[in-house]
Amino acid sequence: MIQSLLIANRGEIACRIIRTARKMGIRTVAVYSDADAKALHVRMADEAVHIGPSAARESYLVGDKIIAAAKATGAEAIHPGYGFLSENAEFAQSVIDAALVWVGPKPASITAMGLKDAAKKLMADAGVPVTPGYMGDNQDPAYLAEEAAGIGYPVLIKAVAGGGGKGMRKVDRAEDFADALESCQREAASSFGNNVVLIEKWIESPRHIEVQVFGDSHGNVVHLFERDCSLQRRHQKVIEEAPAPGMDEATREAVCGAAVRAAQAVNYEGAGTIEFIADASEGLRADRIWFMEMNTRLQVEHPVTEEITGQDLVEWQLRVASGEPLPLTQDELSINGHAIEARLYAEDPAKGFLPSTGRLEHFNLGGDGRIETGVEEGDEISPFYDPMIAKLVAKGADRDEAIESLGEVLSGVFVFPVRTNASFLLNALGSEEFRSAVLDTGFIGRHEDELVSSTPPSARTLSDALLWAARASTGYDPKMPFLAGFRMNAQPQAHQHMAVNGRVEEFEFKATAPGDRFEYGFREDSEPDSQFVVIKGQTYRISWPRFSATVGGGAHDGDIIAPMPGKVTSVEVAAGDKVMKGQRLLTLEAMKMEHGLTAPFDGTVAELNASAGAQVAVDSVLARIQAEA
Fold this sequence. Notes:
The strands form 10 sheets. The protein has an 8-stranded antiparallel β-sheet with strand order 14-13-10-11-12-15-22-20, with helices on both faces. It starts with a strand and ends with a strand. A hairpin with a 2-residue loop joins strand 7 (155-163) and strand 8. The chain is an alpha+beta fold. It is globular, with a radius of gyration of 29 Å. It folds into 5 domains: 4-103, 3-Layer(aba) Sandwich (Rossmann fold), CATH 3.40.50.20; 133-201, Dna Ligase, domain 1 (2-Layer Sandwich); 206-452, D-amino Acid Aminotransferase, Chain A, domain 1 (2-Layer Sandwich); 459-543, no CATH class; 559-627, CATH 2.40.50.100. The chain contains 16 helices and 38 strands.
């Protein structure tokens, strides 16, 4: 058995591998870039080696640095995780040439499956059904156009070296083929250094079905059943589940048997995934499921397979790499229950899914599901790597139970100020089509507008937030009628300005009598006069003004805080001045209104950070009053 292991990766997969290695008594070595110097995988490993600047091309993608780190630390083996160098046959061979153990398939197997056209020919020869299309050497545009016409429109032009949705174009009409081909080849050359393409028949109701396979050095190959990865956004998987909904035993046997033949055709060792495309217009049928490609590594979504089989696939990888036979035979593997995984990304769906970076001031993924993450509260989300920050996995006795369980986990996601796609995922889980297993790869594209929509906090939500704060701080009886305009140490107001994630709006409140249990989730905030409200996985910071006609700003301490972005129109005091409670300190103009900020108590202006005409950000400290002794 391997005794020491270097993980040539980062983030949640590095942490995942470290946990299994530790369970097996294997010493671990992490590698890290400048951006990851304080990362969780670095803190978890027994030893860590710096391998370069933040950019992956200067660190995680430099094979020589990784091998040198393994040699310097005495590591016996290298696990590539997924992404980066995991499917690089040249790197795999370099690891082997350095007398290290490569935790993955043989380089020849990676090469055989690396180009889509060659892989499809190999699969056809092995009796694996392949998608109808052209995958020949003739790349003349006129010839390819003839082949497309013979296949029948619509067709898919696909780069043979592509991946992640790049180098792919759907063409609906013959007159659009030439331009689509040129665009596809240009993108393929730029992304992969290879502009060769193949042409496939476009599947109108495609489902993405993949089979987990495993081989060892003793000639054994098994499958661990299938996964459905049809919920995709721009060809990137979003929600995955196992087993595939609607898969009957006869179809499962046919598809999984084809996957085993595919792995045997390349003498496969280790973990791999055979990906199929299914025409689901009439349900899942064995004669309408075709080989698409093979991923010669562990997949992001492998936890759902682990959940339904009860197996640790990373442990399987390490045992196979150590020369052991597969832990179980095919007859010893079975499906137990249903599992669903959602990928939590640091991104803002409301802003076109732009990545959201910054410090995780609050990061709580509570719930009863399985959490795979590479970050903790206080960590930084950098712009250098994939924005996936966690995988949330739930298991149930059946699909409905798994969906409900994952929904509960997602509802409790509390992340701030970094934005996430939690509400987007919840909306997908809650859609009628998804719950009815009406799935295909175009699902998200068709429903994106409704999936992106989020519910802004209502006046009632703000009322509940205020009541929660009052009850927490004063023991206020929640069964009594409550005026939602409540402020600590102030008279209730029917109209009040509230800041929601820094955006200030005026709300009109009415008397309410909420029960013991609130409709929304609440989280405490370390900032005074502020609470977090979590609505369907979306986190909002609700702040109420630290000023009013009768109460000065900063009622709980001496900090005078900008309640909203605005312009300082006047400053009435100077540093060192003595002030009295209620005395105006400065005036802030925002939302076409002037707001006077006053002293919370008698004292001295210990600090003044504002000047007339200055623009200030929400929550910035404008002044600090020191109380009289």
